[in-house]
Amino acid sequence: MHSRLFAVALAAGLGIVATAQERPKILAVSHLAEYSADPAATEKYYTHVLGAAKGADPENSQGKRYYFSPDQWVEVLPMPANAGKNRLDHIAFRVSDAEGMRKYLGAKGWHIPDAVKSDKSGDEWFDVFDTEGNRVQFVTPGPRKQSVGGAPHAISHHVIHVGILIHDRAKEDTFYRDLLGCKPYWYGGMHDDKVDWVSQQVPDGHDWLEYMVAGGPGTGIPDSMSQQTLGVLNHFALGETSVEDAFKKLQAANRLEGRHDPAPKMGRDGKIQLNMYDPDGTRAELMNLHATEKPCCSQFTAEDPAE
Question: Which CATH class is domain 26-147?
Fold first, then answer.
């Protein structure tokens, strides 16, 4: 009898611990934060070419936000003195409970800050580093989002994925898949026998993170890698029902400025895409939400994002 009561009490205790350590929902991509050497030129690109709505940056008073929707944006920050060829500061995911996520990661042994940060708008966030030292932010938006315009001129209102340079797929999986619960979506490469890109969706939505596998040992930016190549790898993608129609719209409005593909093209994943680059070389990939051809290398293993 005593042993049964002990077992019930132990199970109840374990249940309390499990509840306290339950992972909050990871719902979507929130944003990508980058550096700019020429803020005026960068502003023209994001507001005129991509049509994002410019806003203040509640997280960093020296930065700006370029909104594609009230919950998704690109954050542009002043160039640090030691940036070198790096233009990426962090990637960010929207979560249901930033403080709960901080506690969850801490309970799993991950290095976390002492507290979440917040601003006047009600946003809460904190930063950690993944296994290769990439800064990752988790954000819970506040009610301030209601006051942000809907970016009526944006070529797309949905950031469907962010991509980052990595070296070791298995090592990164211990953070993004094992700990965060991201689910496989697709993988492929320039050639069928080599994996260059690995996509994993957030566990509670359809946006995804794309590993841009550079190969080679170590972490960080290889000395031999150019800033232009790095900008291709560290990127974000805007979802389109039809990239061809978006391209024609940009052409007709004389909004196609700066470096970009001459025309849409078929990607290896069977989705039509158009690559565009900001003044510092960070790539914005306009991408069809759905494949129109059979993808190379692997099948999709999760649902596509919606518009």
Answer: alpha beta
